[in-house]
Design brief:
Elements (H helix, E strand, L loop, with lengths): L4 E7 L3 H12 L8 E7 L6 H11 L4 E5 L7 H10 L5 E6 L2 E2 L4 H8 L4 E4 L2 E3 L2 H6 L2 H5 L9 H20 L12 E4 H6 L13 H11 L3 E4 L6 E3 L16 H6 L20 E4 L4 H11 L1
Helix pairs in contact: 1-2, 2-11
Length: 292
């Protein structure tokens, strides 16, 4: 069975955040039977696999898991592996530290347009607010009432700017943000997905956007309709504000940028470990031993 949309969730060693992310996916409304989920892991050695397996036993949707050895922050590779493990013609990317509002997937499906990629962003929560959001608040959608007023204003302003950018047809605007991107699989395959030469924090999304624009795909803002919700956590070790003095920035600024990247969805001698999670405890224990 092919679903309308695949939700691809990237994660690394934040099992408590991932538990809540998957709960928010399970609470999506108006899209029953229309989506599949892939959790794509960057080599976690904690409880991440057990969290996904527990969610799979309860899920009313297909749930797959991909992983690889951890060799630095390889978000581009994670996302490509999620694409490879899914089948839907439309792809929604988010992160395992984000919550999806109850109508998020339905809105993305309603707003999809051929030849366009939908760009979004997230509402960022502080530590205390993040801790207040439990599974009950996610299940009934009441967590959306906890959004800070300043963040709501920021997203509204960014949504207005995004529409202006669309009208002006400004290049590289509005910008893609990996916690809330929706794109047609066919368009992503035309550019060979995310460029896995980006290792460490930053710029893989901007590179993706530039290569999509090079083949004629337009960027549209989804922020006037929906935004993900980012749970607080300490900054990643590879984080650098604006990517200053990073190898990723230098690589992004290269002159040679073919639309079809050399190290993406297709590459020689690459393997993806895809684990289709079972819904029974005995099979899960065997799976857990295999991944250990």
């Amino acid at each position: 069975m092919t679903h309308d949309i695949a939700i691809i969730v990237s994660t690394y060693e934040r099992p408590l955040h991932l538990t809540r992310c998957l709960a928010s996916i399970a609470a999506q409304q108006g899209v029953e039977g229309r989506f599949e989920v892939v959790v794509t892991d960057d080599g976690s050695r904690d409880e991440t696999l057990r969290v996904v397996a527990a969610a799979a036993r309860q899920a009313a949707f297909p749930l797959a898991f991909t992983t690889h050895d951890h060799q630095g922050f390889r978000l581009a590779r994670c996302r490509n592996e999620g694409v490879a493990a899914s089948t839907a013609p439309y792809l929604l990317f988010t992160d395992g530290d984000c919550l999806l509002p109850p109508d998020h997937v339905r809105i993305h499906l309603d707003k999809r347009r051929q030849g366009c990629v939908n760009a979004g962003d997230c509402l960022r929560l502080d530590e205390s607010t993040s801790k207040r959001i439990d599974l009950a608040a996610i299940g009934d959608g009441s967590f959306t009432a906890l959004m800070p007023a300043a963040e709501l204003r920021r997203i509204r302003w960014k949504a207005r700017r995004g529409k202006a950018y669309e009208w002006l047809r400004m290049p590289m605007r509005p910008r893609l943000s990996g916690n809330n991107i929706a794109v047609w699989r066919s368009d992503l395959e035309r550019i060979n997905g995310f460029d896995e030469q980006f290792v460490g924090w930053g710029f893989e999304d901007r590179d993706l956007q530039q290569r999509l624009e090079q083949i004629g795909v337009r960027t549209r803002s989804i922020l006037g309709h929906t935004a993900t919700v980012h749970l607080w956590h300490p900054l990643a070790p590879s984080f650098a504000r604006n990517g200053a003095e990073t190898e990723n920035l230098r690589y992004f600024r290269r002159r040679d940028r073919p639309s079809f990247c050399r190290d993406g969805l297709m590459k020689p001698n690459d393997t993806v470990e895809t684990i289709r999670l079972p819904k029974c405890d005995a099979a899960f224990e065997a799976l857990h031993r295999q991944a250990a």
